[in-house]
Batch of 2 targets.
Target 1
Amino acid sequence: MPTVRDRLAAPGPHFSVEFMPPRTDADEDILWRAVRRLEPLRPAFVSVTYGAGGSHRQRTIRVTQRIAEETTLMPVAHLTAVGHSVAELRQVIGSYAAVGVRNILALRGDPPGDPNGEWVAHPQGLEYTSELVALTKSLGSFSVGVAAYPDKHPRSPDLDADTKFLVDKIEAGADYAITQMLFSAEDYLRLRDRLAAAGVHVPVLPGIMPITSYGRLMRIHELSGQRIPDDLAEELRRVQDDPDAGRAVGMAHAIAMSEELLAHGAPCLHFYTFNRSKATIEVLSALGMAPAIRR
């Protein structure tokens, strides 16, 4: 199986998408409709999330396996350290290898129940993502990606500390990084410049999801701590009682930001889909990376 690094090295522009493991049969139908609609557009890869504390571990493995076996898509499996001993992590990594998955996104993970709660390592587990990257690389020929924050992680005291944590993950063997949801291309460029100043040069993929309502924007800000452009917040606030207008504002912002990211050399646009395909395809169509949507 090729690796993410292989795919990103090919001529672009590229895009990738993220799915969540379904909780019900109905959710699974929604997921597979999105998979089939996006598959012909040939994303560089698709990633499948992994619930806090391993809450969706078996579903993640099953969905990842199905994508590998039943589609032409290349899956990247999420793996989190939270709530797992090293022995359990070895078992999960082995489960991925057994179904032919060699691309993994290594994450420390949020505390179960409360993403903003205190993070406590498993007594026989790992404290840092860099340790999880090193463990994964030691167990076979895996290509490993990591998460990056365009501003900084809410738990990091400052940008310098946040940059050091990211550099540590890359020096432990990570091949690329994917950012949390971005709200401005400038934040992405500043992150990339910080890594370059630290002597680190790996592909950094901007994370994109059109934000179509003021309430959702505020909720994402609360959970991630990422900076929100004042103009976007004000535009969405003004139309918060008009869902159609909110969607138009969010889509226009996502398209303009994507155009700017590609113009500045972003190697791949990573779309957070929440198991839907319409918004992603609409952005890609506007960028000329997918057939135009018929109205």
Target 2
Amino acid sequence: MLWTGDVGGYEGEFASVSPSWSWPKPVQQPRVRTLLGGGAGPKLFAAIAEYGDGWIPFGGAGLRDALPLLRQAVTDAGRDPATLHIVPMGVLPTPEKMAYYESLGVTECVLRVPAAGPDEVLPVLDEYAFYL
């Protein structure tokens, strides 16, 4: 509600949020994508199928085996699995890894960069640009 209306708030049995205001509104409409992160499994995939737009796995281990299960959960919920956004986090890119992710239907990657100053980070970003 904060991203689409003038005032957003919530009153529920277990939680409440006082009326609040937020500007500027996101440019993504009708809303910002909701991506859920976590380890592969039926509970996470059920939540993504119910209200998420995609998954943020940490790294790519097991992705090939997990994605069919996620897509099936989304299909079972009556949604189109082709609309999912798959965004692995903490990726160290190589041309081969990026091609592999693309073959699996990965839509974006969050690349790993050092927690450092510009002298260390900028050369890493230059190297990544070469791969992409």
